Amino acid sequence: MPGDIPPEELRRALHRAADLVADYVDGVGARDVVPSVEPGEVAARLAPSPPAQAESLESILTDYEELIEPNVTHWNHPGFMAYFGISASGPGIVGEMLAAGLNVNAMLWRTSPAATELEERACDWLRQMVDLPEVFQGHINDTASISTMLAIAAARHGLEGLEIRTRGMAGRADLPQLTVYCSDQAHSSVDKAVMTLGIGHENLRRIPSDDIYQLSLDALEFAIEADLAAGHRPVAVVATAGTTSTTSVDPLSGIAELCERHGIWLHVDAAYAGSAAICPKLRGYLDGWERADSVVINPHKWLFTPFDCSVLLVRDPDLLREAFSLVPEYLRTGESEGTNLMDYGVQLGRRFRALKLWMVIRRFGVEGLRQRLREHCRLATELASWIDSERDLEVMAPVPFSVVCFRWYREGLSGVRLDALNRELLENVNRAGPIFLSHTELNGRFVLRVAIGNIKTSEEHVRQAWELIRREADRLV
Ligand SMILES: *Cc1c(COP(=O)(O)O)cnc(C)c1O
């Protein structure tokens, strides 16, 4: 019987892989953040067809080291300040590796008791850490996009008299138009959710935000009332706590109040900033989210857990289960075995993601995680103050957390010219190598964005970014 590789070969390969990973993580800061490869360059060096005969793991690992590792964009680099940082911290990497060895599928309690119960416990730890009420129950998905889609599906299932789970939406004259609301700053995953769920993209109401990019409550109320008057049926409001562009937080208490008044599901997208709530001083920014029906937080964004790990917390898990479970309720026995996590979403098979989250929380402790988030916020505030003190640079949005939006500015230049010069500034900063920034658009203007979130980003890296920005800004005109 051919079977797997011999145990001794596995052990050797794992030891080498451990060294590769430890060396990589230790040395990644010395590399350029973005590899200098052209499209197709990696593909050209990959064998066009699969090998007919076995190769040694040694030679495969050597190819990994020479071809793959140098040609990824280094998200684990302390100079990675684009998008939102993700960190595969040490404890998280170990958790991910151990999960691969176990290779369990946490679809039913029975198919992996420890994976199911650890997932429930780790999510409850996170709930306690961010100070959400005990009624919230969590489970882990791959991404916030999926978590948000599941939340809107549960909201839709909760609408009485529509029976969409059974009868679908197509060809039904009896269905009202269903509507979902979010701000013009909300993440595109909300668009994808309404597209996927058959609610329709044009039934997503993008409500204008104000001058600091928070959803305008009056405009939301107006939109909901207009839809109700027209006979439409509001399904959910998706409020954002930490928008992707500027990390602004929608007026959560006001939105919660409005949703309660009209019986509309409130989902809070806190993919990035939800983690901040572990810090007592930052928790106030999230006030009101405890009144939501569902909340998503991504520990893979700002809680040092390797990608992927998104926690969806819901107030009424039974409703979420009813939306997706295919086990008839009458077959459920009182003394059921335990939670079957497959009942809370679309996928049957589920990775053991809780292991890495549990290891990260235990290894750093809540206080250790707080210190790291506070330091990121301090560095962002510091950077914003350096930018603010320059005549030709301006901070473009408030900095509640660890993201700074700014641009280069000079009186008398047209908007188009300013955009072009800021685009050039971004390209020149990124071309240098040690720092990687991204951009966004605010009120039609091109804006650079510095997101501090990598666990190894220190004051030295932020100073380096600042010096690079200053130097390239001086060379602009
Ligand atoms: C990053 C982000 C998302 C999408 O996250 P995924 O986990 O990649 O799907 C959604 N909402 C907000 C506010 C985000 O910052």
Task: Label this structure with key terms.
16 helices; 43% helix; 13% strand; alpha/beta; seven-stranded mixed beta sheet; five-stranded mixed beta sheet; Aspartate Aminotransferase, domain 1; binds pyridoxal-5'-phosphate; 477 residues; Aspartate Aminotransferase, domain 2
Q: How do the helices and strands line up, and which of them pair or pack?
A:
Elements: H1 7-27, H2 41-44, H3 57-68, E1 80-81, H4 90-102, H5 113-129, E2 137-141, H6 144-157, H7 164-167, E3 178-183, H8 188-196, E4 204-207, H9 217-229, E5 233-240, H10 252-262, E6 265-269, H11 280-283, E7 294-297, H12 299-302, E8 310-314, H13 317-324, H14 354-388, E9 393-395, E10 403-408, H15 415-432, E11 436-442, E12 445-451, H16 459-474
Parallel strand pairs: 1-11, 3-4, 3-5, 5-6, 6-7
Antiparallel strand pairs: 2-8, 7-8, 9-10, 10-12, 11-12
Residues 84, 143-145, 187, 189, 240, 242-244, 269, 271-272, 298, 310 line the site of pyridoxal-5'-phosphate.
Q: Estimate what percentage of residues fall within beta strands.
A: 5-15%
Q: Please mark out the parts with pLDDT under 50 across 5 or more consecutive residues, or reply none.
A: none
Cα gyration radius (Å): 24 Å
Main beta-sheet strand count, sense and barrel state: 7 strands, mixed
The global form is: globular
The CATH superfamily name of the largest domain is Type I PLP-dependent aspartate aminotransferase-like (Major domain)
CATH architecture of the largest domain: 3-Layer(aba) Sandwich
Count of extended strands? 12
In the CATH hierarchy, what is the class of the largest domain?
Alpha Beta
Strand order in the largest sheet: 2-8-7-6-5-3-4
Count of discrete alpha- or pi-helical segments spanning 4 or more residues: 16
Sequence of secondary-structure elements: HHHEHHEHHEHEHEHEHEHEHHEEHEEH
Report the end-to-end length measured between terminal Cα atoms.
71 Å
What binds here, in terms of ligands, is: pyridoxal-5'-phosphate
What is the number of independent domains?
Answer: 2
Q: What is the subunit organization of this protein?
A: single chain
Residue-averaged pLDDT? 96
